[in-house]
Amino acid sequence: MSAQVRGNTNSSVGSSKYIAPMRVGVLGFGGLGQAAARMLVAKQEMLWVAAADLKGYAYSGEGLNLDTCLAAYQSQGSLGYLEPGGILTSRSIQELIAQASSVDGYFLALPNLPNTFIASVAQMFIKSGWRGVLVDAIKRTSAVEQLLVLKEELAEAGITYLTGCGATPGLLTAGAAIAAQSYAEVHQVKITFGVGIANWEAYRATIREDIAHLPGYSVERARAMTDAEVEALLDQTNGVLTLENMEHADDVMLELAGICSRDCVTVGGVVDTRNPKKPLSTNVQVTGRTFEGKISTHTFTLGDETSMAANVCGPAFGYLKAGVALQRRGIYGLFTAAEIMPQFVK
Ligand code: NAD
Predict the structure, then answer these.
(1) Burial state string for 61-85 with b = 16 or more CB within 10 A and e = fewer than 16
(2) Atom 18 of ligand 1 has which residue's CA nearest to it?
(3) Which of 5, 7, 168, 287 could connect to 172 by a Cys-Cys bridge, CB 3.0–4.6 Å?
(4) Is 181 inside any structural domain?
(5) What pairing do the DSSP bridges indicate for beta strands 185-196 and 265-272?
């Protein structure tokens, strides 16, 4: 995948010196955005300074306060109501980028509704002149392909963009890339996920985007559904969505990483929207042939106690840290979760 190297800004400092935390923003403050902010509270290496939702944004160079942000969002529906510092606006992302120039990187916890939305946000960053790291947890193959089209523009803008960095695509795709190393030839990558959430309203975009994969539905149809229509659909299935042969970017990411052709990758899963217990254990099975001619399968299974939020936001920040390291070395452009190793954020 193309990336450009410009100069070599060596930012490493001696271990005895204070290393300023990475200044991080979260775009989208729904289920994943809030979980991301919660996760950042415990991190020393990252400071949460910026956040935006549909109706407003908040920025503080000293760091945002989780409790007051959650209170503003949950009681009034937007971070724009935060006192002091919240701004109500229908152009929250553009205005935040313009105001918060010192942010090192953003996690895009935004709905990709329509399916072109995240690519349009990438273009906003390119146009703004901001330089830094962007990480998304985008899911569809066609959505990642739109970002691939932007790779040269991202590189020229000095942006290091890591795409597909959630759970699937993300953690499981990266697991498959590692598992593939035992084989001379990879025959199949089969991702099966189980998600349990207590109520669908905590993750509206995630559930709408999952509904879009059901037979007879599309992204546009799922986007246009009212909350009452989503509830009526979930009532018919007792809150459970069973998804097969999904259009998931794990396939294009593994193909681009040179591991296997996209046709060898399948993704499906079960989402229970009325029970936080996972309906099945999330896993990726990687089948291949070793150099000795043996056919075998590696299986990487996530712990059942780990939530969707833990398995999406953890990798997203791990990739953001890796992206900051690339950015500081002058490496810009577009990368996927299958070609970069995430770094552990302390
Ligand atoms: P959500 O519906 O709970 O929240 C969306 C947030 O985005 C809200 O705060 C909303 O105000 C904000 N928003 C919407 N439009 C906006 C705009 N134009 N400008 C600024 N903010 C805007 O969403 P969620 O369930 O947390 O899902 C977020 C994304 O994460 C979805 O695209 C979902 O598919 C993805 N996801 C990925 C994985 C993975 O493993 N890769 C897993 C789960 C979810």
Answers:
(1) eebbbeebbeebbeeeebbbbbeeb
(2) 54
(3) 168
(4) yes
(5) parallel
Is residue 54 exposed (0-12), middle (13-18) or buried (19+ Cβ within 10 Å)? middle
Q: What is the DSSP letter of 1?
A: -
- On whether both 245 and 288 belong to a single domain, the answer is yes
pTM to 2 decimal places: 0.94
How many structural domains is the chain composed of? 2
Domain range enclosing 163? 3-167+309-336
pLDDT digit of tens for each residue in the chain (346 aa)? 444 444 334 444 445 678 899 999 999 999 999 999 999 999 999 999 999 999 999 999 999 999 999 999 999 999 999 999 899 999 999 999 999 989 999 999 999 999 999 999 999 999 999 999 999 999 999 999 999 999 999 999 999 999 999 999 999 999 999 999 999 999 999 999 999 999 999 999 999 999 999 999 999 999 999 999 999 999 999 999 999 999 999 999 999 999 999 999 999 999 999 999 999 999 999 999 999 999 999 999 999 999 999 999 999 999 999 999 999 999 999 999 999 999 999 9
Do 17 and 126 lie in one domain? The reply is: yes
Q: Which residues line ligand 1 (CB under 6 A)?
A: 28-33, 52-54, 92-93, 109-112, 137, 139, 166-170, 203-206, 209, 308, 312
Taking the CA of residue 207 as reference, the ligand 1 atom at the shortest distance is 25
Atom of ligand 1 nearest to the CA of 111: 32
Nearest CA to ligand 1 atom 25: 203
Instruction: Report the alpha-carbon distance of residue 310 to residue 282 in Å, rounded.
Output: 13
